[in-house]
Protein 1
Amino acid sequence: MTYQSEFEHSIDKPIEFWKQQAESIDWYKFPTDILSKDSNGNDCWFADGELNTAYLALDYHVDNGRGDQLALIYDSPVTNTIEQFTYRELRDKVAIFAGALTELGVVKGDRVIIYMPMVTEAAIGMLACARIGAIHSVVFGGFASKELATRIDDAEPKLILAASCGIEFDKVIPYKPLIDEARELATHKLQHCVVLQRPQQVALMGDGDLDWNEISKTAKAVDCVPLKSTDPLYILYTSGTTGKPKGVVRDNGGHAVALRYSMKSVYGVEPGEVYWAASDVGWVVGHSYIVYAPLMTGCTTILFEGKPVRTPDAGTFWRVLDNHRVNVFFTAPTGFRAIRKEDPETKHLKQYDLSHLRTLFVAGERLDPPTYDWLKQTLKVPVVDHWWQTETGWPIASNLMGIEVVDTKAGSSTFPVPGYNVQIVDENSKELGHSTEGDVVVKLPLPPGALPTVWGDHSRYVSSYLSQHEGYFHSGDGGYFDADGYLFIMGRTDDVINVAGHRLSTGEMEEIVASHPACAECAVIGIADKDKGQMPVGLVLLKDGVNIEPEALESELALMVRQQIGAFANFKRAIVVQRLPKTRSGKILRQVMRKIADKVEFEQPATIDDPQILVEIQDSLVSNKIGYVGNQ
Ligand code: COA
Ligand code: AMP
């Protein structure tokens, strides 16, 4: 099989192609309606199929001879714990916890928020919801109470599953006070909070709080509930251009087919192999490639509670790869930049055996060429930069390790994955030829697995993704194809930034900065950072007559963003400026300021109100030592 034939098949005959892929999973009712329109007029996959994702991830393997194979290894250097669960053990735990949820009145279609660190119970909670058709919404443990409250109000969950604390390096972060505050802030009221008590910080329990282990002791195992292919499996909130995150909805059928296909074709992984995605269950990588895809494929997945460095050292990734004989590894480039900084000569690597590692995949941000070269030299295995996003749930472009391996090019995520008709268009939606940068879009229909809607707000789905270029899904990334058809993703064209592999909205940070009493107007931009990819910087115009030391303002704003979004936003720099550059119609020229800070060439917009302001901004950045321009 060649890449070209597989890709053309998927684009020319999508129904035939995806029907064939659907045959690789075990449906209760195989769909006859492969591609149709849903009630919103959207393309919809496998509408009349019936299945259960938790069944495919667990029971199917127990019923088909994998019951005693390891399903999940929990490796936690921050608690000095390694635990292993066979498919049978994990299935039983999930079935019992699903029983506990049922006894609490959770039924098909109810939402359940999961606010947990990287512990096995987070995966058990997700799979237990999937088993009974409840819709989980995992919220990354680094989010502050306000963010959690926003998600509670949007998803309107019946209950929340939590742990008493998370552990960041050697810091114990109590979760329960954050949850209690979020419940106070939210308008929607939850029935219960189920808490997994961890010995590092036991939570104080209040009215309606339940102990995870107590409710599991008495619960009876329940079976998988048959679900429609189009029933939602989960909602995952992601940053958009405004302060309100978007609830990306994932269905059951398309998701299962797409993930199973991706494991075979993109990752080249076989059942029985060991697959490790070092990310967090709070992000899409965690959903797709820590929990669902490896389990649906019959692999052993690793759930790692630690960081690439300082848990306890920069050799921790190599230790896990060796200990658990990992075949395929996936993480974000930022983690490797952190390792390279602490251990540039990879001294730690020398004590480990990585001979079973076949391929390294990276995503979440652009793989910068120096890190790519360092990884290739260090690991001596193919390094695959692949591009995707929360919205798609699985890779849009990659080197297809299970179909045809091609030469890679530094800075490129190689070719579109079968199913994704990727095009580059200009602002008038005209398809562009190679080597010309434009908006990266996907011609409709999107393949199975990609989001069918935004939770509770289909009009937001249309306005965010479909209305910019009619007939195409708008990815929000800019990029180009080179003359050989390699795709280069050059970064977001909207107000989304990527800080240490975390997707954040500058619009949301601007709302917080603007709420400071001294601030008349502001802009937050993401500027290039050699370790974290990008870092946010605030540019603030003070109200007339306000007298505040710039350093004091900077610390107050940093604290506000930390308290309202979370520490991982890394908002540390804010400077006072006299004016902000705008177009004549009043739009702030954020991309231009970003390019100035990054010392990237740019064309002065013809519509700029006063070009002199750009010189002033550059001077302010230089005098505050911000960005590459400030560090020259
Ligand atoms: N809970 C609470 N706080 C968290 C957190 C979490 N889950 N994650 C990060 N934070 C905090 C950190 O403790 C730190 O706090 P501090 O300012 O008090 O020191 C702050 O947020 C900044 O965190 P971060 O930017 O992540 O820096 P770091 O030095 O803690 O770690 C990396 C750097 C590269 C190791 C880490 O960012 C990383 O592993 N990133 C990869 C992300 C990822 O997997 N993305 C998915 C795409 S594959
Ligand atoms: P998220 O939804 O959090 O997975 O973030 C998705 C965004 O991360 C994309 O829209 C890109 O901007 C960026 N991204 C992810 N993978 C890559 C990659 N391989 N190359 C460049 N950018 C990437």
Note: The pocket of coenzyme A (ligand 1) is lined by residues 141-142, 166, 168, 173, 279-280, 283, 285, 307-309, 331-332, 334-335, 338, 363-364, 500-502, 532, 567-568, 570 (CB under 6 Å).
Protein 2
Amino acid sequence: MTRVLDLLAARTCVSVELWPPRSDTAAARLESTLDRLALLAPDFASITYGAAGSTRDRTHDLVVSLQRDRHTTAMAHLACAAHTRAELEAILARYRDEGIENVLALRGDPPLDATTALEDGELRHASDLVELVRASGPFCVAVAAHPAGHPDAPDLAADRRYLARKLVSADLAITQFFFGVEEYLRLVDDLHALGVDRPVVPGVMPVTSVRTLDRMAALSGVPVPAALARRVDAARDDPDEVYRIGVEVATKLCGELLDAGVPGLHFYTMNQFAATLDICSALGLAKRAAARPAP
Ligand code: FAD
């Protein structure tokens, strides 16, 4: 069992984000892709949480099975918008009792806005959840960072201040995906200027299909560079070419991030590992992972 903060201090980590499967078929597919992922031996895997609490048990079960059965350090995502304080306390107590050490404390996307009244003691922001996770056990706590600023924030400066506030208590941040190394460097510089020097792990999403690009950009509000959108659009009828472009672009970004001295690379895999494996192989990271002693 390992805390992600300690892993980041020891080496440049490679990590993956997974979704809990929605059906038996998806579960079987995930098992076979997890077998292939063993080639990469990620330092940790984070497991997403349904914004409305819809994956409460499925997230829990995948976190526990990765850690127990596959000996992979697991990080449980948890979204406070989905739950009452009492529910969050129960979820965290269960993780603590099962030896899960890493939690990504999120707000999630709530069906309420900043003016919606909450009962006394309920949680509105991820920073509130960070405090609750801290009070619930000896967890290593991560938070989300948004290089381009979060879409709900009044402006970038305010979003940076809120992020800095989260990182006073949290151990590390993992970013939303982005497309240019300068976006990451600006985020880290802004945090330094606010007195924060916690590790910030860049999130990388290989664009492996037109559908992925359209869907993720729409969901996250992250602007897609015009040049990339044009290349992908020109190859729209050739899925292999779109995949090749996606891997090429992400490999270049990861190389620049590694040159900049990032603490790790976190891949948004969407439960498909071919691109992550191809990128890591191109960067020599798959071999490095394979050479590491088994836990
Ligand atoms: P917060 O930090 O609470 O910020 C949300 C907004 O409120 C921002 O605009 C911020 O500027 C503002 N804000 C923060 N604090 C304050 C304050 N004190 N006063 C006023 N305004 C404030 N979503 C899921 O549903 N499930 C997942 O598993 C999931 N995983 C993710 C993993 C990563 C690495 C990332 C980057 C995002 C993930 N998300 C996930 C998406 C995330 O939940 C959304 O982006 C959500 O809208 C914001 O979450 P947050 O934790 O950044 O919220």
Note: The longest helix spans residues 239-259.
Protein 3
Amino acid sequence: MAEEPERRAPSHRYGARVLEWDDLAEIAREIERTESDPEGVGIMTRKGRVYPVRLNGVSLKASPLLKQELLSVGGDAAHARGIADHSVASSGVLLLATWGQYRRLLPKLKRQPFGLAELAGEVDRALRYYVARGGRTVPLPHRALPLGDRPRVMGVVNVTPDSFSDGGRFLEPTAAVAAALRLAEEGASVLDIGGESTRPGATPVSPEEEWRRVAPVLEGLRDRSPVPVSIDTRHPEVAARAIDAGADLVNDVEGLRSEAMRRVVARTGAGAVVMHMRGTPATMQADVEYADLRGEVFRALADATDAAIAAGVAPERLLVDPGIGFGKSAEQSLELLVHAGEFRSLGYPVVVGASRKSFLGTLAGSPGPADRLEAGLAAAVLAAERGVALVRTHDVGPTVRALALVAAAERAARRAPATAGTLATDAADD
Ligand code: HH2
């Protein structure tokens, strides 16, 4: 008779458990629980997480030096194989280092040639912006917008006959004003009013017609909205009149690419959501090929915000948005959503609009916009977890309730460790 194999439960003598953390405070608290030396908590916290930083176009001369310097502080850097045999002129580089290793690397790089000093400044800023948490207030012409204290919601009201999810519902101004005020009551921190559909292939609307649609709604909200109002427009003349009529933000799906739009925003002191879109709503789905989707969107947003600042727009009034669904396939929209946190490296609050969009239908199997609430809530939670400051949605009440859980989880993660003093991230003593 065959012998029964011996059955033994696996050993859990040490309770080996892989920990999940994100926030430095969380790492410090876990290290404290080992009853480690308080000084060690600070030192080890800075070793508790690797921050991968992606760079483009690092020269043949700079790449090996960068790798060598990073290896010397205990990190590493990936670059093109062709750097070694000089078959390429430049390379994309991926830096892999802990906070402490960056703090030792960056001063060294600042003394190096071949553009490494400038590169160090950029890496330093990206890291600081990425880890920066906490609330701030965006100054706006009529009302201020608090952001960053918790994930907040931008409620959408489209005063159009043809918007993809709410077209025709709010063409009557009193209905639109009532709907917007209801969204504010449900917890929206901004109301986004649009008079032109920008869904793929939508018929463009003249600025006159767009203004005819939105003017009475803005007028109705001017003294009644408890929260800032944003005008969703690509037309500078509509933006200027809207700000005069009480709007605080310009939500421009063309990312302030028009010089006239940049001038309007600069002159009025309005805030601006700079969204990424290649081409126009009529043409954007014709070419959805990207060699490096996130890299290209990042570069375009960096260029657009730089141009806005050069035109006189105050950086603290800018927000950025990767433009989900605008010239992107369903998979590309998903990629931008799950990596939305990377855009925080630009230093501006990140906005994401996924609500009811077709990629949710494609990926979650919900055919019509009306069936996409649950997938939209999941998208909002994914975005908020990644540090997106403002989620644009048609479904305000449910989204506010879903994001309250994300806010509670964040508060718990950021609870200060007992040895808070040791967390001064600039100390270079690891
Ligand atoms: N999406 C739409 C419109 N404006 N603005 C920002 N910043 N981000 C977005 O993702 C975004 C946006 C499209 O949605 P909707 O307004 O509901 O539809 P339509 O363009 O058909 O009116």
Note: Residues 156, 158, 160, 163-165, 194, 197-199, 232, 251, 253, 273, 275, 321, 323-324, 351, 353, 392 surround 6-hydroxymethylpterin-diphosphate (CB under 6 Å).
Protein 4
Amino acid sequence: MTARNPERYKIETLAIHAGQAPDPATGAVMTPIYQTSTFVQQGVGEHKGYEYARTGNPTRTALEACLAALEGAAHGLAFASGMAAIDTLLKVFDPGDHVLAGNDVYGGTFRLFDKQYKKYGIEFSYVETTDLEAVRAALRPNTRWVWLETPTNPRLKVADLRAIAQAAHDHDPAVRVVVDNTFATPYLQQPLALGADVVVHSTTKYLGGHSDVVGGAVLTSDPQLHARLAFLQNAAGAVPGPLDCFLVLRGIKTLAVRMERHGENGLAVAQFLADHPQVAEVIYPGLESHPQHALARRQMRNAGGMVSFFVRGGPGAARALVARTRLFALAESLGGVESLIELPAAMTHGSTQGSPLEVDAGLIRVSVGLEHKDDLIADLAQALHSL
Ligand code: P1T
């Protein structure tokens, strides 16, 4: 199977096969790791489609085709990290462009906007993306890009992708709506089908799925934007190595079954926390108490594996709790098979301090993994009990 007619297959099948026909040279079922920096030419410019591995590598081509098929995009590009993918997209923006971004995004994304690209004359403003009227009101005559996460990192706000894409394109058909789909993955939600123009991923997370690789990707069906991004991918060179591409490809094969279990375990953990007397508030789109619960049910296949919460006792108690879990490892990142816990204000979102995106110091974020849910709940129970 090639990625040429991916619409015939469901996402579980695409995850295993798209872009990954058996190796033509040997019949190897798994895409080989083409660990080479260059490719021999028969004569000048006469080659088999590959010249130099920054420009292209067959393992990367397979990953790019697979990711594009999963998101329903015509084109895919893989990068060395999620931030490299975001950085490459930002290089397309021109001085004077206005970017309307959500007011809750990954700290590294905000840092790159605020500390690097602002100085190139790109305007950034931040809006509450759960409020469609606020989004409409924040669109400016020079708005060229709308930047969304949903669910957001770390407050897990859910944005109505169809409504926002419609509003942005009604405002100006040239506006491009970018969705960072890292938290949901294409298994839970497909932004392009809802009207977005570009999807960005940190493949480090659920796509890789095993906390053993750092990577990123940009997917779009816009041929001009893709051509510009492909130029930048080669010209600037933030490309992933072939082993990293292989690891992401291998992780993707089990994406569907993993995301089903992440959602099941995420809901179980969220329900346990919601009923616990030491817990002040739980944020999880799969709980009826979540302000966008109905939208999440419509837009997502399940509510995923990320849960945020506050304990009674404020930031001091939160710090104590994250040091006391045994199965939930205290670490940045998310989306792997193992459960992680962290304090965003002090860790992943330190760069938002003092900004309108500042994260509450007491917010705790967990990435609920694939261990048995009873063991995960028992771990949180013992940590909460010792507060
Ligand atoms: O870490 P990297 O692969 O460069 O991806 C950056 C990134 C982009 N977008 C989102 C939504 C992300 O969550 C991240 C990385 N986030 C973490 C490391 C974290 O713990 O939140």
Note: The chain has two domains: 11-252, 256-385.
